[in-house]
Amino acid sequence: MKKFFKLVITAVLSISLLLSCGILSSCGKSQKTIRVCASDVPHAEVLNECVKELLAKDGWILKVEVLDWTMQNDAVASGDYDANYFQHVPYLSTYTGSTKLFATCKVHYEPLGIYYGKATVGTSVTDGKTFAICDDTSNAIRAFNLLTAKGVIDKTAEGDNYPVNADGETLNIGETSKSWTSRDGQVTVTLVAENLLVSSLGDYDFACLPCNTAYTGNVDSSKRAEVEDDSSLVVGNANVIAVRENDYNTNDVYKAKIDALTNAMLSKEVSDFFAEKYLGSMTCDNTTQIDLRK
Q1: pTM here?
Q2: Which residues of the chain have pLDDT under 70?
């Protein structure tokens, strides 16, 4: 009988050991896994084709999922993902969820361009009468600023009709309005959903397309009439890694993941990948790779 009990106890201990090893192994793997949601191009490509290998050298497992950009901040805030990669700081600052997000670093810049629509290639943008721009607030403000910089809109002449408020962060066209018309009636700017911008090119003289929208929509660079070239815009609108602020400050495991990811995004390997993969259409160098951690 004693021998029987001894065998039972030994068996129980063995099973417990196996289970604990499995659980510990699983926990260890979880602590070394970084889950990131991202837009497809270039974000997920950079993560999968470059950053994943960099992190693996230090034992990290990077899992990337392409997610609609409108869902990504909520997805990180809820804890489904550790970080996201799709937006710039002006857009992140509009996030109103209960969980505060912050950017750990800026990575690359996708210039906003003015592309020919109905207008004949070679026509000056100042001769354009109708323009389409992206309908989310941050990109709309960015487009209006570009149209002003290129002489399509005269800020002084517009006065209180100018489409961007003095704070530079809100639109002056009404909450529900989908268009703006210059004081003299010569220029009309229509806000269009980002996924419809490329297909709407033929309906307007020109359209302001984010670099990624033009790239994924196969709009050739020969159709680009003007592009953002202000250095302050490059820095201000560089795409970032966004994470949960409170978890980063209080959770050592989470912080280690985010620091590893951030360090990889700031590496020369990433800037070299951008240069080779996207042939100079996007900017990623020491002017855009900026560490924002305190």
Answers
A1: 0.70
A2: 1-29
- Per DSSP, the three-state class of 106 is strand
Residues of the domain holding 166:
112-229
CATH of the domain at 172: 3.40.190.10
Cβ atoms of 239 and 86 closer than 8 Å: yes
The helix or strand, by DSSP H or E, that contains position 17, with its residue range, turns out to be: helix 2-31
Do residues 243 and 105 share a domain? yes
Residues 189 and 175 in one domain: yes
Split into its structural domains, the chain has a count of 2
What pLDDT score does 195 carry?
A: 93
119 and 220 share a domain?
yes
Q: What angle do CA 120, 121, 125 make, to 5 degrees?
A: 85
Helix, strand, or coil (residue 60) = coil
Give CA–CA dist 213/89, Å, rounded.
18
Q: How many CA atoms lie within 13 A of 160 on its CB side?
A: 0
Identify whether 125 is part of a domain: yes
Q: Could you tell me if 81 and 75 are in contact, meaning their C-beta atoms sit under 8 angstroms apart? A: yes
Q: What is the 3-state secondary structure (H, E, C) of 78-121?
A: CCCCCEEEEEEHHHHCCCCCCCCEEEEEEEEECCEEEEECCCCC
As separate numbers, helices (DSSP H) first and strands (DSSP E) second, the chain gives 12, 12
